[in-house]
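Q: Start with the shorter request: fold the first protein.
A: Done. Sequence, then structure:
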Amino acid sequence: MEILAHTLKKARQAKGLSQAQLAARAGTGQGHISRMERGEKGASSDTLRAVARELDITLARLLGEEPEQQRGISEPDASYSTTNPANAILASPHAPAGLKQLAEDATLIAALNIQPMEWESLTSIRLPPGVDKQGYLQLLVTLRAIIR
């Protein structure tokens, strides 16, 4: 429950939602969200799925079953969306300019067939400011070489 509490609060705050807003969207009460964030109360699987959906994170990540760090890769911005990663990157005020340039190039995205897990990796690796679209393309190629 401690992992759920920590992840829930962190993801909710990253999305800029109040407990009441998240509760309304997920179909539960603000008090329930508050108790979940304090680790005092669990939730039904339906409620957990609804909360994860509203926070645009996987249920596994919400429950702490996906590691927050792998090979120097930190947890992605909670604004990352599994449904349309490129649009989520474009909408995020925290996404680096070079990554946004890549997300804007629909033709290149289609040609490279960038997968959701690859977007997640690209959003979670913190690069120095000023890395451009080419830098993110090089990172993508490197990630593919490591993973495959």
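Q: Next, the second protein, separately.
A: Sequence, then structure:
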Amino acid sequence: MHILCSGPPGSIPDLVARAVADQLFVTRGQRAVVDNRPGAAGQISVGALKTAAADSPTLLLAQGAIATVYPYLYAKLAYDPAVDLQPVTLASEMLLGLAVGPAVPRDVNTLGEFMAWIRKHPAQANIGSPGTGTLPHLLEAMLFRKEGVAWQHVAYAGGPPAVTDLLGGQIAALTLPEGLLRQHHATGRVRVLATSGPARSAYLAEVPSFVEQGHPELVVKEWFAFFASGRMPQATVEATSALLREAIARPELSAAFTQAGMTPASSLPSVLSTRIMSEQRYWQPVLRANNIRAD
């Protein structure tokens, strides 16, 4: 099996792809080669999937946004998710966390206190994300629009450089998958003020959710999934989904995901397809209301 990955080596998509590939070998003795094709908001990896032979055992592991958000974020996209991507199965889910760093006074420890600080210091409200149109950026836009506060979005090329600037005080706050923030929160170098689940995170149980703090609309999960080419026969898609779901269910994979603050998740192709359509209906008006484009 050939697994294309939308992220670079060492990224969360790469971790997911390689963890599942390892378990495929354990469960079935089947070797899967992970081929990193990052860049251009997933368009490079999708392009590689599109050119794969219809009967080729080639899959794509990517963030759900390639099917749910990017079609409405970019005026011109090099693929049509309804034509070029067949959902195979979910792979993992993770929550987001909003964290403040040393640029924000130490007595700011709740979401409400942070909003009060921003209102008093709008010029210092530089808020980072791993890129325009990413789920962390969309969560920030929804939060600050509802709060009615002025802020400046700082887009980075991924999470690591954004974390570096948060730790250095170049930006006031940052939204990222919580797994990338946990170690810095534990040492006190940053303070995670809220997480994006319907309830508190099992990984940051001391941190209240956005829901607890008056934002029931901010239930956002970052998720990753396997996709097949739009030309792969449906019977092959179904068989591949069953194979992957077996690997994802293994406890060894769950242990690997825990280290990154993720939980395993799997689904039938039809269930994943329904989720994609539901999230498309959700995110399209959010992008429009916040005038978010990436052209």
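Q: Describe the second briefly.
A: The domain at 95-195 is CATH 3.40.190.10 (D-Maltodextrin-Binding Protein; domain 2). The beta strands are 2-5, 33-36, 58-63, 85-100, 126-129, 152-155, 173-177, 191-195, 221-229, 263-264.
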